[in-house]
Amino acid sequence: MTSFSRALHFILAQQRGKSARRVFDNPLSISAPGGDFKTAVYTPENPVRHPIIFLHGMSPLGIHDPRQIIAVRALAAAGFRIICPEIPSIKDLKITTESIGSFAGVAQAILDDARLCPSGRAAFFAPSFSGAICLKAAAMPALRDRITAVCALGSMAQVRGSMEYLFLSDEADTYARYIVLANYLPLVKKYRPLAAVFAALARDNWNESASKNPRLTGFTATHDAETILKKLSLPNRKRAAALKSDRSYRKEVFAELTPYMERELEAYDIVAVAGSIQAPTLLMHGISDNVIPPGESLRLAPHLARKRLVISPFLGHADSAVSLKLIADVWRLVAGFAYFFRHAAR
In the chain, at which residue ranges do the beta strands (DSSP E only) sit? Predict the structure, then answer.
């Protein structure tokens, strides 16, 4: 199978939500520094020698999110064994430096397992924030010679710009903003009581979206944030309301929180380590992405030695599903994925 036919198989399987190619799934546990990690493995018949390690995004369902399962099965339809470790901190919507170490540790364990990874080499594939984690891991001395390729969908160059966008832009995705607020408000004492509100708002937002998504079943809208808000003092309720709707107030809060975010800002500075990434890297971004703006991929690309950059009007945030309405743009997407598959298979 050529790299272009792999790309077409992947895109069509993603569009249809299924593939004619048989794929066998197998749950297992991988021991690595930090504990045992739940892992799902999807294997087609006669897979490519080098697997793809797929890192899930910030979903409460982790590796069991049906949207991810469609994506990984589509990748398997392209001929690769897909290995999906679940990182608890990411599943729990936590923005933490420990996620990088956890993923790097489990990736190392996968690469060292001759049953899962016979060649000792693999590619990385991840959306959004998790894409930054994969890029950071791909730059590490212990891993960089063993990564065949990286695909980062809707990822970032430096977390500072993404955080500022989510705090300040009125167009920013509310679910992502609530996650950021829930993670960083506890860093300043006077905002600490508000963290539970925004964690609940993130869950309510996710559940409402899930209840309307035909690919997700069994979810209903929740209103947990309302219950928590009622227990807050009046001044804190006013602060919560201002954080939701007042850009100027969010700007003040962001300025207060920034000095306490330095650890994460440094850890997720991908530009600083991009020169150490040896693997050919596909940066793919939706032009209207309202979680991480496409400017992040545009800023990162010049710092990578081997890369392909695709900015498309037919990709949502960290979404590998594409619209087939405009053939010219679809061809650019096919060429981008073909670039990734060509190097992932070598």
Answer: 23-32, 35-44, 52-54, 82-85, 122-127, 147-153, 281-286, 307-312
